[in-house]
Design brief:
The chain is an alpha/beta fold. The protein contains 5 helices and 8 strands.
C-alpha cells in the first residue's frame, strides 16, 4: 500500500537503517510454528524509546508512543493502528502487575512487528489490580502473526516479572542505557 488515510507514506531517516531482526513475523496464515522456539523467542528491538513521557491518561500515552512510529515502513496506516490500540485498551486493559503495561493490537495496518518502549514521569492507570504503570511496551503485530504475537506477550510478561530488571529500566538515565538494558532482556 503506497499511502494511508494520512496521505502518501513518508520516508523517515530514523527507520531507513532498520534491518530484519530475529522474531519478526515471517509466518504465513496457518503456518504457526511449534516446539522449543517459544522458549528461545527474541522479541524485536524497539523502533523507538521514549523516556519520561509527560502524559496523564492511557489515551494520550498511547497516542504519544504510537506517534513515534510516523514514517516507520512497517506501519501502513498509523491513524488506523492508533485507533485500534485505543479501542483494544478500552475493551481489555493491558496493565500488568508491578507498574508495567503492554498496550498492543493485532492489525492489518501493521506489516511487521513494531515495538515502542516508554517510561512515564508519573504513573498512569492501565487497569492493573495493583495500581498504575510507568513502564510501557506498545506493540503492533500483523493480524496473521498469531504465534509471534503470543510469544511476544509471553516473553515480555516473563521478563517484566523481574524486580531487578524493572528497576534498571526505571533508573536508566539515557536512551542508550535503556537500549542496552532492553538488549540484555531480548537476548536473555
Amino acid at each position: 500500500m503506497e499511502g494511508s488515510v494520512l496521505g502518501p507514506r513518508r520516508e523517515n531517516p530514523t527507520f531507513a537503517a532498520v534491518q530484519p531482526l530475529p522474531g519478526r513475523c515471517l509466518e504465513a496464515p496457518g503456518e504457526a510454528q511449534h516446539g522449543t522456539q517459544a522458549m528461545s523467542y527474541t522479541f524485536p528491538a524497539p523502533s523507538a524509546i521514549c523516556l519520561d513521557v509527560d502524559c496523564h491518561d492511557r489515551e494520550s500515552l498511547i497516542r504519544t508512543l504510537a506517534g513515534t512510529l510516523a514514517g516507520c515502513p512497517d506501519i501502513v496506516d498509523l491513524e488506523a493502528f492508533t485507533r485500534q490500540l485505543i479501542r483494544r485498551e478500552l475493551e481489555t486493559p493491558t496493565g500488568l502487575e508491578n507498574g508495567c503495561a503492554l498496550p498492543h493490537a493485532r492489525s492489518a495496518a501493521v506489516e511487521e512487528i513494531v515495538l515502542v518502549v516508554g517510561r512515564s514521569r508519573e504513573p498512569i492507570d492501565f487497569g492493573a489490580a495493583d495500581g498504575p504503570a510507568r513502564l510501557f511496551f506498545l506493540f503492533g503485530v500483523p493480524e496473521h502473526c498469531i504465534t509471534q504475537y503470543l510469544k511476544l506477550v509471553a516473553r515480555l510478561s516473563t521478563l517484566l516479572k523481574s524486580a531487578e530488571y524493572r528497576q534498571r529500566l526505571l533508573e536508566a538515565g539515557s536512551e542508550a542505557e535503556m537500549r542496552e538494558i532492553l538488549e540484555e532482556g531480548r537476548r536473555a
